[in-house]
Amino acid sequence: NFSVDNEVHSSFIQRRLRSQERREMQREILSILGLPHRPRPHVNTKHTAAPMFMLDLYNTISTDAQPPGYSYYKPALPTQGSPMMTPQESRFLDDADTVMSFVNLVDQEKDLLFQQHRREFRFDLSRIPEGEAVTAAEFRIYKNVVQERYENETFSVSVYQVLEKPPNSEVELLLLDQREVWAAEDGWLLFDLTATSNLWLVNPEQNLGLHLVLEDSHGQRRNPHLAGLVTGNGAQEKQPFMVAFFKVNEVRLRSVR
Amino acid sequence: SAHGHKGRQGNRSKPQKTVQDALKVVEAAADTLSLSKEGCKKHELYVSFRDLGWQDWIIAPEGYAAFYCEGECAFPLNSYMNATNHAIVQTLVHFINPDTVPKPCCAPTQLHGISVLYFDDSSNVILKKYRNMVVRSCGCH
Q1: Is the pLDDT assigned to residue A31 strictly greater than 60?
Q2: A interface test, pick of B119, B129, B138 with most A CB neighbours within 10 Å
Q3: Nearest residue on chain A to B51, judged by CA atoms?
Q4: How much is the ipTM here?
């Protein structure tokens, strides 16, 4: 698609590409983008939490980089209600070459049947870009306001790394991060996963997932839903996800084709 | 190449005339298309992800203005944008010896990056910064 504007000159004659040419053109552009093939996402809903958060990041970068008068970086989606970016994430974003969000692979419906007082999360980190190192990673989970009898209560939200899952015995856990929250609080809770994700990248077999545990002020384990935590059944734009920031640590050479 | 085949050509003037005629035709065609007379300039080239039918996996942008550099870097270079000193020297040397020394190239002098937001096969979302994807300015090198 070639066009002419006031500042530049076009010497191309526009014509429709033949299907073979079109395929070759697509292959070339995919190669420039560093992709071996066209991705085929099985779920491509753009209105879930992770894509909305990522679109926020994209708009931040594009607004910063956008030359005056340009209109090519129009956001494709509204960002209202998307997960807010913290100042720390803004710094991570400045340093990053790539940012990636990961969907939770654990079926929360099934999980709910077996575990009343904890939730399990798993993220597949095997498809991260080649030659890039994690500079920061976090797990994000949304907390709604609780307006029932727990309104004045505080809760403790803990995120554990699963170290081992021995058959017929309790799983071995490592506490990664903990938050104290009021029942009346509302918003995204962030848990640092930088060290854990680096470990999972080096030793993928140790990626056995995360456990989230909720305790009330008496130290009793409770169902995360009682504190308003959205773990699977809630609104699409409030679903938990993981985000990682990457930086290129080696020179990328494009192969000759 | 004509030099190496000298001995095998029976009629030396006829092929030379043919080559000259052919050159005239090429020059005339170039004049008509106004390609070769055009100086080194930035030209519009918009890569449309929408037209490629990639909106099922590319979230943003819909496309980007990549631009490209095209045109002749011929003597005198002063009128062309961003000619390097070396390009001016090379143009002069080309002028003296056009068969062995090529003209300078019309190429990008400033490049900028873009970011692309897309789904991968596992429905994870990737935001990637691509450096040097957009031509900001062109010049003779």
Answers
A1: yes
A2: B119
A3: A1
A4: 0.82
